[in-house]
């Protein structure tokens, strides 16, 4: 299978790429910066894996079309994400729109571009990397929470529209993962709440989580791999939550 992963140079994206590559699939790392793409592709190729890369801006229609034309996906992993933390009244409107474009409109348009090929081959798997914030909310994250909530509804609609072929679409929703994006959030929330970074981790990020632990990128990668396996062929339109018990409260 050919597996296209957006945000593929980041912590979660590259873990997913490595997981699929180790399973024997061709992986395509799609991201914004050529240098980072080349570095990650080289790492995989040095291990003997089949890997390629492409510069992709999920908010740009021409870039999306080019990716779909060059690398039609059997498996599409919509993972690209950004964050901005601020009260709504202090949230720059252009930044709010950017988050929606990257994490909701982008996955929709890339899925739209990949779907004709999937339908022609009678096979497709789309996995959206959501977040615990697709299910719950936190202050100062209105755009991120709105985008991730929207992703769940989007996935359900696409699952219904393509239930006539061998196709599934699901969303993996982890609690906090220790990635560079989350490291930035820790610093931003420390400033917003007037706390130390350690206090943010203990009192805000891990406080609602009974297991009190960050989710590992390996867990997300393996869950994504499972959703694309034959054993999961009838799991579609679902939300798989890796939250250490957070949403049980």
UniProtKB/TrEMBL annotation:
UniProt record similarity statement: Belongs to the short-chain dehydrogenases/reductases (SDR) family.
Key words, A-Z: Oxidoreductase
Name listed for the protein in its UniProt record: 3-hydroxybutyrate dehydrogenase
UniProt EC number: 1.1.1.30
GO biological process, one term: monocarboxylic acid metabolic process
EC class of the enzyme, as a word: oxidoreductase
Keyword GTP-binding part of the UniProt annotation: no
InterPro entries documented for this protein: 3-OHbutyrate_DH (IPR011294), NAD(P)-bd_dom_sf (IPR036291), Sc_DH/Rdtase_CS (IPR020904), SDR (IPR050259), SDR_fam (IPR002347)
An annotated Gene Ontology molecular function: 3-hydroxybutyrate dehydrogenase activity
Superkingdom of origin: Bacteria
